[in-house]
Amino acid sequence: MNRRNTRWGILLVAGISFLLIAAACSSDSEPVAQSPTPRPTATTSAPAAQATTPTSITAPVTTAATSNLSIGNKVGEHIPDFSVLLGDGSVSRSSEILAEGKPVFMFFWATWCSVCRGELQEMLGVYPEFKDKVAFYAVGQDPTESVSRLVSAAEDRNYPWPVASAGPGMLRTLNIVSQSSKLAFTTDGEITYKAGYGQGDADRWRQVFEDLLASN
Asked: 70 near 64, Cβ under 8 Å?
């Protein structure tokens, strides 16, 4: 009886031990959950903006070369470079006068010239019609007369146009040899009219003005 009980006790203990070992092994062999590996995110970079070079715009320059004219002082030629001293004391070059975009009529005079006085009196009847469209200058031809003297005489005679004095070498360059000479040129610098002492009248000058405007 005692042996039987002892055997059953041993078997019971062995069974319990087996169950405990099996449970422990099962716990140790359970796989550990792994964190999912993050999937790389595709990034799309925006294309870099391409730098653009601005196109430079160059204003056209009117010269004898671009107008296919030879430089000279005769009708049909391109005026040479010259300068005038204006009544306000400023100096203006021929290129600056042309840049104003108006054709030009120049009358060369002297305060003591009686023929000039008579012709400019006739010009008073023509000038108002064209003063906004044609640049008219009364340019002193006598080198002994200052621009202030010319301005004073013009004011006394109620001349409405700009008064100037010929710049250095201008008279020689344009071949102006006497008072009462006239010179007209287009916005391209082409000389269209040239007359000497006592030549021309109101009707002729009106036609010169109209021809200058028609050439634009």
From this structure: yes
Question: What are the boundaries of each domain within the chain?
Answer: 83-214
Domain 83-214 has CATH 3.40.30.10: yes
Tell me which residue has tokens 């004219």. Answer: 69
Gap between the Cα atoms of 162 and 153, Å rounded: 12
Torsion angle defined by CA atoms of residues 163, 167, 172 and 173, in that order, rounded to the nearest 10 degrees:
-100
The separation between CA 102 and the C-alpha centre of its own chain, rounded to angstroms, equals 18
Backbone angles phi, psi at 143, to 5 degrees: -65, -15
Mean pLDDT, rounded, for 16-32: 48
- Alpha helices, DSSP H, located in 29-134: 94-99, 114-123, 127-130
Are the C-beta atoms of residues 159 and 138 closer than 8 Å to each other?
yes
Residue 116 CA to its chain's centroid (Å): 41
Distinct helix (H) and strand (E) counts, the chain: 7, 7
pTM: 0.68
More confident residue, 65 or 16: 16
Which residues neighbour 137 within 8 Å (Cβ) at sequence distance 6 or greater? 84, 104, 105, 106, 107, 161, 162, 163, 164
